[in-house]
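Case study.
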Amino acid sequence: MDKSLLMELNMDIGDERFNHTLRVVETAVDLGKRHNVDIEKVKKAALLHDCAKFQGQINLLKMAKDFDIILDTYMEYNHDLIHGPLGAKIAKTKYKVEDKEVLDAIYYHTTGRENMTLLDKIIYISDYIEPGRNFPGVDEVRKATYNNLDKGILLAMDNTIKFLVDKNKVIHPNTIKARNFLLMELNSKPR
Ligand SMILES: [Fe+2]
Ligand SMILES: [Fe+2]
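After joint prediction, the assembly is written out as follows.
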């Protein structure tokens, strides 16, 4: 991506989020190489995954509506989730990304989805384990991810779901669907 767009991204999301983004790129490229995923796609998706995390007071709900994004009830309720779908739209319009796989990885990075692509998985988990993350349990997820990508994601989703339950928060159904799918797939494979 050319320098002026990178600077624009930095301006939009602020230094802290931009630095997180660079660490996600680094982790995602590493994982992408291990899993033979197109590195250009990995870089693009990782770089833009949080492009809708605007700094300052921005009304994400209004912005999503202005872009004609159809939000589900959960997103209308929990605005933290909006930057996935909104990010995909901004990646397309502002950063001229046409690749549906890249746009989907951005769209679903906050929740996951049923039957995730390898690119979806790499962006989702890199966001969770990038080296700046230091919440309880993250090291176990890192280890699991490098042993078996699906098991790492499953553990990350388990932790997320448990955290949300403990905090009495709503769980997006895509996260439940993603977890169920991974679990059933892992359990049906010979061990
Ligand atoms: Fe995000
Ligand atoms: Fe992120």
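Observations recorded in class. The chain is about 70% helix and 0% strand. The chain has a mean pLDDT of 96. We will return to this complex in the next lecture.
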